[in-house]
Recover the amino acids of this structure.
């Protein structure tokens, strides 16, 4: 049945599944289908809701650009807004039509704190050498035209503090002022008389919240404490944060207190011992000052640096910022965590709004069926959203780097785009199909475009974006056609949503995006290939030899080769164990495939000739079959069928079974010459020589020879006694010709010598007649 209102598309899934069954080659999928995955891209004019859907965002408009280095604070006043700036200490008025004028030019360089009474009277807190100024409501200057007296800006309160971080009007009408670097909270009456109401152990009281009942909540910078102070001055800690700084508060109608916790050098607060200009605001001399910074003679100059470097105390993997909710019953819950963002401000307007940097993103906390979730609402061009002010249709945003003021309108954006994060195929790959799931109401559209490249970050070497391809009334997009992009390791997609702009009309929505791809086949690689010691074989851990003769160790337990290598040295995964069987050899290899394709192996061999030289060519000519179609990375085999000599073994690895006909690739490698030796050592010349001990003492000199392997073990038994090591004349048993020197006591009747070579071929020689001949 044809849809008349909404098109729902889910492309290529059935085709993908069928393709993956039709051949071993793996068709893979890039999937983006969660809010976190969508938020990892770049959003312009679109928002991600708690359900993970992307739709057109409420439209914001730029009210005015501000020709100051930084905006540090903002409040609403009748007819517009007031903003506090740095590094030139100005308080500016911005009207609804975007006109910018100066209300006050402070002698101090920074205005971190602003408060506006309902009539528009402003209180501005300046830093450093903190002062609170009272600025008349902007409209009072109109009295000049009537010849009336004009109220002047006045120094209202001097706390004798370095910084003034926050100003709030309390429930009883007093003005609360939070300061640093001595961490004091002042209560100031209408005449500007102030007293210390709370003296913290922290260097800075960074944030401030006045509660309706008269209590005050402060957040510190230093140990990250949130403290509630009652009207009688008693204080209790509500929360001790892991992060060192509490930057902002917001109060919900149900009494829940939201707090922003930050561990970031993008903070406005200087770290102890850090010079001015080193990532925050400081007062350590002119070395950190920027052009335009001001101060009275002899006073420190300052600079503001809203950077994105890591704080010294931040642990690897820890979030840069968290937003917590403190319920009226004291229960604390983390409602938002930001790995790379610094939270600068919070606002409650119908829901919680969160302003962040260093990517200039605006979030909100929205309710969904699974509970409250943080939603990305805006991704602005500016790097920091420094302040939020309640507006008629939504928050007004004050930005810095660069400084501007934006307001939310009642309309939706008419057009927006989301550019997905760069997707890494791990190898050059061909695009298959672009699949999507979402809704396209009548009068709206969704379009896609793709590009590809070989560098991890898009640059001029990437292919250009393909033309937009609408998907409003079609069910699939083959990427080899309309959205063609050349094979490459890296891909990127973008989607364009177009709507009506009306808040009453539904927006197009994007719920998921899939891009299918298939890696270009690459040749396998043989990383290692060789033979295990003679007689050592590999079997699965659960191998049961049944009636076959296998030994866990070599039978010669008293020789220098008492046991084989432990199993963990043979196979790190624990799948294999070593056994021993005379007359067997084992080949072992390690191979890999860049595409992750399963590999099959073939082994062939040929005689290496007397010198054991490798063949001139590794082609199949002259090679005889040993084993084919192997999937394991080892082969143990009986060499009894081969005569003594040197042999070469050739390993071929192929991914042909995992690719279409004609697309498989293979690689081969030839092993070093391997000795096949069935012959034990032979007895050579045996004679008596004088011993070092003097006249009358003699030694039996025994010469041994082996055609292929070195003599590795020699033992002697006298008159049926235990086997004892037989010493070599040169001190080492390590060559194919060895001479043994045996001390034989006079009167010995039965003399045996047992010899083993490197291939574990053993022979026992009876030298009793030599001893008897000597005795006669």
């Amino acid at each position: 049945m044809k849809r008349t209102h909404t098109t729902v598309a889910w492309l290529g899934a059935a085709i993908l599944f069928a393709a993956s069954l039709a051949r071993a080659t793996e068709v893979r999928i890039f999937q983006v289908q969660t809010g976190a995955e969508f938020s990892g891209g770049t959003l312009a004019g679109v928002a991600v809701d708690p359900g993970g859907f992307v739709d057109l965002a409420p439209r914001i408009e730029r009210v005015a650009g501000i020709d100051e280095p930084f905006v540090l604070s903002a409040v609403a006043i009748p007819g517009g807004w007031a903003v506090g700036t740095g590094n030139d200490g100005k308080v500016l008025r911005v009207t609804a039509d975007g006109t910018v004028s100066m209300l006050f030019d402070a002698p101090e360089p920074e205005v971190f704190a602003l408060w506006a009474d309902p009539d528009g009277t402003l209180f501005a807190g300046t830093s450093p050498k903190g002062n609170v100024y009272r600025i008349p409501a902007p409209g009072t200057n109109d009295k000049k035209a009537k010849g009336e007296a004009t109220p002047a800006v006045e120094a209202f309160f001097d706390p004798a503090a370095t910084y003034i971080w926050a100003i709030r009007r309390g429930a009883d009408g007093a003005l609360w002022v939070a300061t640093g670097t001595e961490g004091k909270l002042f209560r100031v009456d209408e005449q500007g008389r102030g007293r210390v109401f709370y003296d913290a152990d922290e260097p800075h009281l960074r944030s401030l919240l006045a509660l309706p009942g008269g209590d005050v909540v402060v957040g510190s910078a230093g140990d990250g404490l949130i403290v509630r102070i009652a009207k009688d001055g008693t204080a209790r800690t509500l929360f001790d944060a892991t992060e060192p700084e509490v930057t902002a508060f917001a109060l919900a109608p149900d009494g829940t207190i939201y707090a922003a916790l930050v561990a970031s050098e993008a903070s406005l607060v200087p770290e102890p011992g850090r010079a001015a200009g080193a990532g925050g605001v400081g007062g350590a001399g002119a070395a950190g000052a920027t052009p335009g910074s001001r101060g009275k003679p002899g006073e420190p100059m300052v600079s503001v640096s809203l950077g994105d470097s890591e704080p010294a105390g931040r642990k690897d993997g820890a979030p840069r910022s968290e937003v917590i909710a403190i319920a009226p019953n004291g229960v604390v819950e983390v409602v938002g965590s930001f790995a790379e963002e610094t939270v600068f401000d919070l606002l409650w307007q119908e829901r919680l709004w969160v302003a962040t940097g260093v990517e200039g993103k605006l979030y909100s906390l929205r309710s969904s069926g699974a509970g409250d979730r943080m939603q990305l609402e805006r991704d602005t061009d500016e790097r920091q959203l420094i302040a939020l002010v309640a507006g008629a249709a939504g928050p007004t945003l004050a930005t810095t780097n660069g400084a501007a003021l934006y307001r939310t309108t009642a309309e939706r954006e008419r057009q927006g785009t989301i550019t997905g994060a760069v997707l890494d195929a791990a190898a050059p790959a061909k695009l298959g199909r672009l699949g999507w799931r979402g809704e396209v109401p009548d009068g709206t559209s969704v379009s896609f475009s793709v590009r590809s490249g070989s560098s991890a970050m898009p640059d001029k070497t990437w292919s250009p974006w393909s033309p937009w391809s609408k998907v409003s009334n079609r069910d699939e997009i083959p990427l080899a056609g309309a959205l063609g992009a050349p094979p490459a390791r890296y891909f990127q997609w973008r989607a364009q949503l177009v709507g009506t702009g009306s808040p009453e009309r539904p927006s197009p929505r994007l719920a998921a995006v899939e891009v299918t791809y298939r890696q270009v086949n690459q040749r396998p690689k043989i990383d290692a290939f060789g033979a295990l010691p003679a007689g050592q074989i590999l079997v699965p851990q659960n191998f049961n030899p049944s009636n076959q003769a296998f030994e866990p160790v070599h039978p010669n337990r008293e020789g220098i080769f008492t046991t084989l290598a432990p199993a963990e040295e043979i196979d790190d995964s624990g799948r294999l164990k070593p056994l021993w069987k005379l007359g067997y050899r084992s080949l072992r290899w390690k191979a890999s495939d860049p595409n992750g394709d399963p590999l099959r192996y073939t082994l062939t061999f040929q005689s290496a000739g007397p010198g054991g030289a490798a063949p001139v060519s590794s082609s199949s000519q002259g090679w005889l079959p040993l084993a084919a179609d192997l999937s394991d990375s080892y082969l143990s085999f009986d060499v009894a069928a081969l005569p003594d000599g040197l042999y070469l073994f050739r390993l071929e690895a192929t991914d042909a079974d995992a690719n279409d006909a004609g697309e498989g690739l293979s690689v081969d490698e030839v092993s070093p010459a391997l000795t096949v030796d069935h012959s034990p050592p032979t007895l050579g010349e045996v004679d008596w020589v004088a011993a070092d001990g003097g006249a009358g003492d003699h030694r039996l000199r025994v010469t041994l020879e082996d055609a292929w392997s070195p003599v590795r073990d020699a033992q002697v038994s006298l008159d049926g006694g235990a086997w004892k090591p037989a010493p070599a004349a040169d001190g080492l048993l390590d060559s194919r010709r060895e001479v043994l020197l045996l001390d034989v006591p006079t009167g010995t009747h039965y003399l045996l010598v047992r010899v083993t070579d490197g291939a574990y071929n053993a022979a026992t020689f009876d030298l009793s007649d030599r001893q008897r001949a000597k005795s006669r």
User: Anything to note?
Assistant: The CA atoms of residues 215 and 231 lie 5 Å apart. The first strand starts at residue 28 and ends at 32.
